[in-house]
């Protein structure tokens, strides 16, 4: 029988409810979720008064497996539990030997292993033992196409609403850098703290995050989807005048993601709103509108060729077969190819 895989939300709910397990191995390429779970455990396992006695935090660069096991095998002095957190555990050699402890962990110890940017082989002893007696959690990057929905759900936890366009603006500007996103959301949350209606609008994002409400990748994409040639050219002209805030390296992934998804739409049997949402894994009908328009304006063959053009432009922006053409000219040529 397959071991249950816990989601980030489930883990946080259980910790908040005081349901702690003896071992948490938190691994993967997205540090945001690893840090959030660790911080929540530090907050919930011990009271402030007990931390000096029953909390141990060590770092992989300064620790070895023997030190971790010795710390985990101690009994709490003042509390029901003792908490042992190992940060940067990916730097510990022979970490597999930790399985010797994890196979029979103390119920009074909560051991937290931060194994960032890497994963532990699920077939190895440490992973198997962790799944048996604790939680083995892989923190994965969120696909950029799902970022607007993630931003909306993240803000919902803070009792803050956000308009779909504002969520898309943040997604396009910040990508899937969750640590940076969290900092910007903290900033917006503080601005809204004194207001009765807590709602993030495109205007609020424009004024405080430094993204133009009218001239951004989201609006460029909408103009391209609807074949609004004048609007698209105005936006890339604005990008040319403001290159630091609108680098081509931020625009090309947005265009590549859109046309890659549009190709999926073309070959989807069900081209209804719900059908396209299911095909692309989208949660909001708001995100489907641009794909419905794109199907009308761009044939499957055109989309296929444009994906190649975007790849070529990306290579040229990095200097491949391009000794001198500036990024602004590369973007103008690409947008011309798209729209004509």
Would you write up a description of this structure?
- The chain has 340 residues and is an alpha/beta fold.
- The chain folds into 2 domains: 8-138, 3-Layer(aba) Sandwich (Rossmann fold); 148-339, Zinc Finger, Delta Prime, domain 3 (Up-down Bundle).
- Helices cover 54% and strands 10% of the residues.
- The protein contains 17 helices and 7 strands.
- The strands form 2 sheets. It has a 5-stranded parallel beta sheet, with helices on both faces. Strands 6-7 form a two-stranded parallel ribbon.
- Helix 11 crosses helix 15 and helix 13 (248-266) packs antiparallel against helix 16 (300-317).
- The longest helix has 19 residues, at 248-266.
List keywords for this structure.
alpha/beta, Zinc Finger, Delta Prime, domain 3, Rossmann fold, 7 strands, two-stranded parallel sheet, 2 domains, 340 residues
Rg over CA atoms = 24 Å
Strand content: 5-15%
On the 0 to 100 scale, the average pLDDT is 91
How many separate helices? Answer: 17
CATH architecture field of the largest domain: Up-down Bundle
Q: Span from first to last CA? A: 56 Å
By CATH, the topology of the largest domain is Zinc Finger, Delta Prime, domain 3
Helix content: 40-55%
Low-confidence stretches: none
Number of domains: 2
Let me know the number of strands. Answer: 7
Highest-level CATH class of the largest domain: Mainly Alpha
Order of helices and strands: HEHHEHEHEHEHEHHEHHHHHHHH
Order of strands, main sheet, comes to 2-3-4-1-5
Secondary structure category? alpha/beta
General form: elongated
The major pleated sheet works out as: 5 strands, parallel
